[in-house]
Amino acid sequence: MIGESRSEFRLKNPPEDGISSVKFGPNSSQFLLVSSWDCSVRLYDVQANSMRTKYTHDRPVLDVSFQDAVHSFSGGLDNKLKMYDLNSNSESVLGSHDNAIRCVEYSNEVNVVLSGGWDGNVKMWDTRSSQCVGTLLQPDKVFTMSNVGEKLVVGTAGRKVFVWDLRNTAYIMQRRESNLKFQTRCIRCSPNKQGYVLSSIEGRVAVEYFDTAPEIQKKKYAFKCHRIKDNDIECIYPVNAISFHQVFNTFATGGSDGYVNIWDGFNKKRLCQFHRYNTGITSLCFSHDGE
């Protein structure tokens, strides 16, 4: 959204502070939700390059998600989970946490909104009844989470990773620890439902698999990225964002170095690198068709 070229353009009416999350609509590459530290959530028509609507929270917004083409959810430092009807431009508070809401996801598999907070809870919300229908207790602050099919992967402080089955939340399916040495920044599940990719503040990314069979676990690995050498000094940058291509199962990473890289993670190679942006990358999102 920063450069100008045939394949890249800047959106008009951008937020007035840092962007925390960008999400394309579930079945269209036309609409993009953007949350920001300026306390706003904005809906853009990408094709027309116009802002369709905007609503606000009392404090900075940390994440946003679509349910369908006309309903969005957002949460942030005001501890509130808001639901917004994009057709009628009406908003309501679906619920709240005891601390900031860091992550918001929607699960088509069980038809619930998922909110992860710094209070150490992941809450499941039924949008029809506006009720919390489940609370998944985590051992520490929720930093990132991603769901695919019936699985929800949660990354917390202390480098912990938990895999939940949303159809049966009475117990944790898998308890893991990040293979990376430092704080987890982002987790995204692969569209083929075989595993997830995890990034950290030390310029590294790990490719992980759900299947615990030894022959499958042998495939997992980690690699260095978003590092820049300058006069024989290596500068290491956090990898803040990951997004999977829904068709090809490749993924993009964005770092505080201002670069976006595209990876074929399962063949262990980098496909391309975008030009350097003038600030760190905080969020990435492929459209559903990957175009």
From TrEMBL:
WD repeats lie at residues 94-135, 239-264. It comes from the Eukaryota. Keywords: Repeat, WD repeat. Gene3D superfamilies: YVTN repeat-like/Quinoprotein amine dehydrogenase. InterPro entries: WD40/YVTN_repeat-like_dom_sf (IPR015943), WD40_repeat_CS (IPR019775), WD40_repeat_dom_sf (IPR036322), WD40_rpt (IPR001680). The keyword Repeat applies. Pfam families: WD40. This is Mitotic checkpoint protein BUB3. It comes from Melanaphis sacchari.
